[in-house]
Amino acid sequence: MFEEFLEKQLSWLGDSSENIIFSSRIRLARNLSEYPFPHKATSSQREEIRERIKGAIFKLEEFKDSIFVNMEDLNALDKQFFLERHIISQEHMVSSSGKGLMISSGEEISMMVNEEDHIRFQILAGGFRLDELWEKINYFDDRLTSYLKFAFLPDLGYLTSCPTNIGTALRASCMLHLPGLVMTRKINKILELLAKLSFTSRGLFGEGTQALGDFFQISNQVSLGLSEKELIENLVGIVKQVREQEEEARISLVKRQKITLEDKIGRALGILRNAYLITTKEALSYLSLLYLGIDLGIIKNISQKVVKNLFIVIQPAHLQKKEGRMLREEERDYVRAYILRKRLKEDV
Amino acid sequence: MLCDICHKNIATIHLTEIVGDKIVELHLCSKCAQMKTEEIKNQLSLSEFLTGLVKEEKKERRVLRCAKCGLTFNDFRKMGKLGCKFCYESFREKLLPLLRKIHGSVEHTGKVPQGLKEEEILERKIRELRKKLAKAIKLEEYEEAARIRDEIRNLEKKRDV
Fold first, then answer.
1. Is the same domain home to A185 and A84?
2. Whose CB among A120, A122, A264, A338 lies 3.0–4.6 Å from A112's, allowing a Cys bridge?
């Protein structure tokens, strides 16, 4: 199963021409009407819930080729691997009975079963494609309704175990690459402003506010009171504004500090192409510069797609899956550097 | 409050029972309670039985609990998670201000599961009319208020069929 994943190399990332907005995601939470929420359900209820959801999924023609696994059948490394691919959450890695995971072929759609809610259903795409994603996930949600009855109240909408998610139970997000705003030190102001406007932002890699690789995820905080389309429209509006700010920051960097910027990017590529030991953190920050360099036309001959994939595959569990064994930290740094050297070779 | 059995004496003992998913309350005077106790073929002494009842009653008053899944409002406070869909009904009054704080609204305007649509449309209409009614009363437009009231009644009848 994992070989397949490694070979596919994140087809959902696609060939999007959108450089600042790395990817879009929509997640819906649903609970089966007749069972308590996962944390309050008994083991046997959770297993029953999992079976019912699994049954419903495989009744849908579109999901015939998808994979469904019980989380207890995965080891820690497998789970870490899916976490690195943004298919499962930290919470879903914690062992507890009845947890399941569905992944559609192509990884565009995935579902966590018995995480915080019975169903956490997500759809991912490279670039800025929230409207299209909503159409699709809405359709699948309707299809599931033919087989599953969801907890719903007319005035409060879809009910979730945490009241912060009720109503539409929708979380839409975009992953943005914002090195310009980080370098011009405008990022904190923007993040503060987003929080004031009820949007959540956090770094993509690493924990908490630490944003490795200058990636930030922006999502809606509110889920009740606005329709799905309105929530998405608002997010689209705000993401466009952040993108504009990033573009401006890049223009000003090129204008005022062109040589410094070229130097930074050139050094980053130099290290990535020549290092024999490199940590995840270091690699992500140089890849970020490289990605920016390609976008600004400073770096030629390296495709964005290669770099996009590298962001994912240099992470610890991916390296270990690729090598087919557990690696010590130093070994990981070595394998990581090897992959980077190979994929960023000058003649490619 | 008068005793539910003799309807003469003042009820001093309050018994709360959950039958199926309904809460049944029984209010008894001490005499009838004693009789009721004897009816129950139980080895417990009366005093034990009564202390049990009193404790239960105190609990009833202090602890807000979801009758379906047993989660208390305190559990929710600690964990930030509700136990089941009925918790939203059980704790509705306490949850609404919180939801308003989080979302700025307590009116779902998004999608509705397929098959639920007709009910939902009615429900929404009724909600809107209730708001209009409150407004009309505030403005002392009683004729308009009466008209809205009748409309609400009609819709409620339709809904409850």
1. yes
2. A120
- Tell me if chain A has a CB within 8 Å of the CB of B43: no
A-B Cβ pairs (cutoff 8 Å, strict) = 112
Does one domain contain both A271 and A319? yes
* Pairing between β-strand A170-177 and β-strand A157-158 as defined by DSSP bridges: unpaired
| Same-domain check for residues A139 and A71 | yes
> Please, are residues B83 and B71 in contact by the beta-carbon 8 Å criterion?
yes
ipTM of the complex: 0.85
| Contact status, residue A84 vs residue A205, Cβ threshold 8 Å | no
Domain of A289 in residue numbering reads as: 247-346
Q: Is the domain of A39 the same as that of A109?
A: yes
The confidence score (pLDDT) of residue B128 equals 79
Closest CA to A169 of B112, B127, B40, B61: B112
Contact A149 B80 (CB under 8 A): no
Average of per-residue pLDDT values in chain A: 91
Given A206, A222, A246, the domain boundary residue is A246
The conformational region for residue A213 under phi > 0 = left, psi -120 to 50 = alpha, else beta, is: left
Closest residue to B106, CB basis, from A33, A138, A155:
A155
For residue A137, the chain B residues in CB contact (below 8 A) are: none
Regions of chain A short of the pLDDT cut 70: 1-16, 205-210, 347-348
Domain edge (last residue) among A230, A246, A262? A246
Number of domains in chain A: 2
Tell if the CB–CB gap between B85 and A31 is shorter than 8 Å: yes
**For position A65, which CATH number holds?**
3.30.590.10
Instruction: For residues A109 and B134, give the distance between their C-alpha atoms in angstroms, rounded to a whole number.
Output: 46
Q: 0.90 exceeded by the pTM?
A: no
pLDDT in tens, A257-307: 999 999 999 999 999 999 999 999 999 999 999 999 999 999 988 988 899
Domain shared by A98 and A186, yes or no: yes
What per-residue confidence (pLDDT) applies to A252? 95
Contact between A168 and B88 using a beta-carbon 8 Å cutoff: no
> Which of the four pLDDT bands, split at 50, 70 and 90, describes residue B39?
low
- Give the single-character DSSP code of A348: -
Same domain, A253 and A177: no
Q: Taking CB atoms and an 8 Å cutoff, what residues of chain B touch A227?
A: 109-111
CA distance A207 to chain B (A): 21
